[in-house]
Amino acid sequence: MEIEPQLLGSSNPPHILIFPLPMQGPVNSMLKLAELLILSADNIHATFLTTDVVYHQLIVSARAKERFDRNPRFSFRTFSDGLPNDHPRGGDKFLEMLDAVKAVSHPIVREIVSSGDTHTSSSETNQTLEVVLSPLVTCIVSDGLYNFALDVGNEVGIPVFYFETMSPSCLWVYLCLPKLVEAGEVPFTENSDLDALLVNVPGMDGYLRRRDLPDFCRARDATDDIMLQRVLGQVQQMQRAQGIILNTFEDLDSHLLSYMRSHCSIPIYTIGPLHSSLKERLQANALSSNQPFVYSDHSNSLWQEDRNCMAWLDKQPLRSVIFCSFGSQVVITKEQLTEFLHGLVDSKTLFLWMNRPGSVIGLEENYEMLEKQVLMHGDLLKGIKKNGCIVSWVPQVEVLSHPAIGGFLTHGGWNSVIESVVAGVPMVCWPHYVDQLVNSRLATEVWKLGVDIKDSCNRAIVEKVVRDIMCLRRDELLENATKMANLASTSVQKGGTSYESMKNLIKDMESLTSQI
Ligand SMILES: *[C@@H]1O[C@H](CO)[C@@H](O)[C@H](O)[C@H]1NC(C)=O
Fold this sequence. Notes:
Helix content: 40-55%
CATH architecture of the largest domain: 3-Layer(aba) Sandwich
Largest sheet: 7 strands, parallel
Number of strands: 13
Strand order of the largest sheet: 3-2-1-4-5-6-7
Family: Belongs to the UDP-glycosyltransferase family.
EC number: 2.4.1.-
Bound molecules: 2-acetamido-2-deoxy-beta-D-glucopyranose
Protein name: Glycosyltransferase
GO molecular function, one term: quercetin 7-O-glucosyltransferase activity
Pfam family, one: UDPGT
Number of domains: 3
Number of helices: 19
CATH class of the largest domain: Alpha Beta
CATH superfamily of the largest domain: Glycogen Phosphorylase B
Shape: globular
CATH topology of the largest domain: Rossmann fold
């Protein structure tokens, strides 16, 4: 491909290749990062690399194409992950998906960064919308799990930044894992005392228990060991990156960030909450150009959003509804679903339940099946009809900021936690795996924003904690949540820590570009 001479040499503009894991959470936050980068500096180009499957979902559900086509400095580049159509691409097949994606994307990343060709390779995309000419890629921002990106960056001589979509607290636990293993604190078995406190995670001693560690530390089977070995390998590589980008703000994780910074020799950028930063920018831009601004246009949902729940929420009293969602990956059993629904109905609280298609084992598609198979027993169904609203997939940021929402029953995935923090909504956390187990502990013990019910799921507990956060401890929790939400908001405004960190990141990306 021909590159115009003025695009080379000293006037080389920064062109960032952004490469997330092909899953809802990482795609959402890294797309927001891409939007922020191109909005924050008028010379930055961004290419977003993802799978055909994700790209398709994005253009159908999030109308991402229309949104990004407006900016000639942004382009998508897609590839086929080579997996069968019906592969779940996550959940218990996560490692299979990761390995497939790594294998096919490695040569593609190398080709993109060495040729500067960002033509999309997908046969299904409309040719006329391709970016025909873009400057050479000067920098890679990749998920921390793509360690090959560091090798490619080294070969070609361009910097690689890691973007961690998991929480900073879990990243800190990861960084401490070699020590935990050496000291014999990890792994442990499910039968050991799960409430024992850990001593080898500085800054978290005193509240971090065995049960709060990522699930694979429990060594239940060989998969756990594979995960542990992988993470240990990943941690060793981490410091070869140019820097680590985190979706958090200083006030939220200050007690750990100082430990992390003295442990790591590379910069750590805290530029979150990304969705708030982006909203701030877009609002400012809309204001200065006299354009209307609709935040819902910037959702990066991979599934069609069901907006009917917004009208339902409009009819409910202030802070009266608990929003229940286990995110984009978690799969539960029918029994667990039944316990949660009973607990909610028994608590007599209004609730909005997100029933993501495929999220309940044995109930593949829709709510009608759910009614038929699980809820046929009269009273439960009656209770649900009276107090509940069940939807398939929601615009979560909008739901959480709706005035009727007073609580969030969540799996504690990092995007969900940070969105809850921004909205000032107290949480009940029921974590499943990886960072969720750590996040839920911080939500309760450090930020004092809710309750952690990990390792238990029965209707009596659900009823109790829902009453707790929606009635008994409501005012105090709301007060704490509002304080944290205000800190989040300050961090993304001009002069705030996240705003400044974003400026530093761009400055570093630009100065590294000029050295190429
Ligand atoms: C709210 O935060 C304060 C200060 O951290 C704490 O003492 C209190 O227990 C928190 N409230 C709840 C309900 O957790």
